[in-house]
Structures are given as C-alpha cells and as structure tokens.
Amino acid sequence: MSTPTILIVEDESAVRDMLRFTLQQHDLNVQEAIETIAAERLIAQNPPDLILLDWMLPGKSGVEFARQLKHNPETSDIPIIMLTARGEENDKILGLESGADDYITKPFSTRELQARIRAILRRTTPLRNDEKIEIRDLSLDTASHRVLASGKRLELGPTEFRLLHFFMTHQERVYSRTQLLDQVWGTNTFIEERTVDVHIRRLRRALEPTHHDSLLQTVRGAGYRFSAEG
Ligand code: CA
C-alpha cells in the first residue's frame, strides 16, 4: 500500500507544526493549507486519504467546508476529522452531521491523534474479500464499492458503507453501540457511542427513498438490528 497523504487545514501555525511533526514521525505524507481555498486547490491536484480540518478558519468555516466536500461526489469519500477547540457536545454532533467522520477536541495528545487517524484509515481501506451481498432488492458489492437499492445507486460515505456491510453480513441479531464500534470502527476508546447513532441516522436517510430503511431497526435499550423479516 502506498503511503497515505493527510491534508491539514489549520490556520494556527503552532497547531499545524505539531500536526505535521506527529504525522511525519509516523511516515505519513503531509499537505498543508491555512484556509479552504488553498485546501480546495490541493484536493483537486492530489486527493488526500484523510483531511484534518479545523473548525474555526478565516473565510469559510471548517463545518461549511466539510459540508461542501461531502456534497461533491468527487470528494465525498475522503474522510474528515474535525479539529475543534470547543468542548460543547452539540458542536461535536453538528460537526458530524456536516459530514465529518470524527472529531477531536483541542488540546489533544499526539497519541490520541494517532489512534483516531489509524482507526479512520483502517475503516476506509477496502474490505478484503470481493463479494456481492443481496437482500430484498438491496445489493452491496465490495469489489466496486457500490450499493444498489431497487436498481438505484446509493451514495454512501465510507463509514455508512462499512456499517451496511456489517449489518448485511450479520442479520437478525441485535448489536449494541459498543459492539458496533468494535466491529465497524475497530477498537478505539476515543470514539463516543453517540457517533454510532449519527452514522446510523445517515445510513437510514440514504435507505429511505427506496424504503429500505425499515430493514435497520432500533431495539430500545439494546441497540440496532438488521432484519429482512419485517
Ligand atoms: Ca483556527
């Protein structure tokens, strides 16, 4: 596998220096931008494997930029970790709703940063086996990374794709949020359980137009179940 490239979008030079140093120590390629216009240019030239995106930037905010990237099919698959100085739970959730795959609150340790990056890169690398799974007019192909629902192509982010793959290969069983974090995100103590709900919500929204969202059921007090049995 080639060395992953990480794009840092951060206007504070001290934070940028720390990030660059940490990433380079772990043999990752680093690109840097201090605002979103320069970031856009870099992404067009050489799409990164991951973006570390600061929340507060001069010009367009990190949240707005994340939304823009996730709405563009050319860039929607690039995972984003939001860097936020705020500790507010609502802001974190807003960041995830904007399309970010994870968030990290400043100040953070280099160890925490590493763990997050590893977890994201692990779950965005392609699944090992080429397989095609079909359930009730919903088909998922790991080779082409495509999901078709009633013949219509679904646009899913990398996490939603893995989540759906997990559910389709583990039907008729209830999984708790913790179990889903372990199975889909990989064991990572830094990711909060509410992250699971955010991605489930996104997956349901994608499945809604063809009424496949009913396959993904909430089991109160227990977690989630994928069931074709109504
Ligand atoms: Ca900033």
Layout of strands and helices, then pairs:
Layout (H helix, E strand, L loop, with lengths): L4 E5 L3 H13 L3 E5 L2 H10 L4 E5 L7 H10 L8 E5 L4 H9 L4 E4 L4 H15 L7 E4 L2 E4 L4 E4 L2 E3 L3 H12 L4 E2 L1 H9 L8 H14 L8 E4 L3 E4 L4
The site of calcium ion (CA) has 5 residues, from loops.
Structural class: alpha/beta
Average pLDDT works out at 86
Q: What is the 3D shape?
A: globular
Which distinct ligands sit in these coordinates? calcium ion
Number of domain modules: 2
Largest sheet: 5 strands, parallel
Q: According to CATH, what is the topology of the largest domain?
A: Rossmann fold
Task: Write a concise keyword list for the protein shown above.
230 residues, Rossmann fold, Arc Repressor Mutant, subunit A, 2 domains
What do these coordinates show?
- The chain is of the alpha/beta class and 230 residues long.
- It contains eight helices and twelve strands.
- It has two domains: 5-124, Rossmann fold, CATH 3.40.50.2300; 132-226, Orthogonal Bundle (Arc Repressor Mutant, subunit A).
- 40% of the residues lie in helices and 21% in strands.
- Strands 2-1-3-4-5 form a five-stranded parallel beta sheet, sandwiched between helices. Strands 6-7-8-9 form a four-stranded antiparallel beta sheet, with helices on one face.
- Strand 1 (5-9), helix 1 (13-25) and strand 2 (29-33) form a beta-alpha-beta unit.
- The N and C termini lie far apart (42 Å).
- Bound molecules: calcium ion.
